[in-house]
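Ticket #4471: structure output looks truncated?

Reporter: J.K.
Steps to reproduce: submitted the chain below (379 residues) through the standard prediction queue, then opened the result file.
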Amino acid sequence: MQPATPPPVAPFLRTAAAYAWRLLAVGAAVYALFAVLGRFHEIGVAVFLGLVVTALLRPPTGVAARAMPRPLAVALTLLGSAALVLGVLAVVGEAVAGERETLVREFRDGIDRIEDWLERPPFRLAPDALSDIQTRIGQYLSSHRSTLLSQALSGAGQLVEVFTTLALALFCSVFFIHSGDRQWAWFLRQLPAAARERTQIGGQAAWRTFTGYTHGIVLVAATNAVLVGLALWLLGVPLAVPLALLEFAAAFIPLIGSPVALAVAAVVALASRGPLVAVIVIALIVVIGQIEGHVLHPLVMSWAVRLHPLVVAVSVIAGAIAAGVVGAVVAVPLVSVLWSVRTALREAGSAPRDGGAAPQARPPGPPGPSPTAASTPTP
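Returned output as attached by the reporter:
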């Protein structure tokens, strides 16, 4: 008796199963990568920051190296950039110190206005509700003083880790800027001969995408900071310069960073200038969000790899879940780099060899940079 023949599997089920196990494999690889980075996240963050500094400072270093030895050009560029950052921080600190007394007075008056507003319709909050909250906060701080002190000491230890990471990032950037091309060439020589060409193509695409994204996101952050600072200054909101700096830092987290920073500015405006100015700041959030979403970010992605907004959103949320704020910052450039490498390798695999005919159609997918064998990626 012959065994029964199993029923045929529908083609779409075969395709779905093939994609499913591949997606599971990719998910396992990504999880393992983040698990390893989680164990050594300080090193990963330091190398990432070193690459960011390299992407920003390597072009001016190359210009300066035409008139002086390259080591001197590297030192001059790094010292000049450090002086610029410290100068900006000094201006922010001076602005905060100069407005401290005025800010405290305006905040006290603003809190009183907010209490009166909450006590009127439609909220009708009890008059003693906010004072009761303040009393409970004071009791909590008094009863948990030792816990708060231990957390402050733990925060001091984390501050040491931050400075250690920044020092390592600066150390990496010095060598990346000075001799990153030679380091990349040495790395290629360690690989098997059969893997060097594809690694070279992938490396070129990765570095081109990373530098394009870095330059673009810095442009977005600077533009947002200037717009926010100018608007808050014209509205008379205190701490306009620190809030603009907060907007600059928050813009490195796509989609959600700028609204959060502008929400903080709206709270400051509500407490210091009243509801009308706060509403204007909220309108500013909408306007700047439209400029960023429809003008600036498409420009950034045209320099790197054009990703769908859904991919950007999922990447940011996944990075935030996996590694907090650092993961949210790193997620989008990481996805852009991986996609550009995949596109470049696919194009290289479909390129004609031995004088064959060129393919008639470009493979589907987002436009990525075309690989060139003559250039060398440089961190």
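Triage note (M.O.): checked the attachment and the full token line is present. The chain has eleven helices and no strands.
Status: closed, working as intended.
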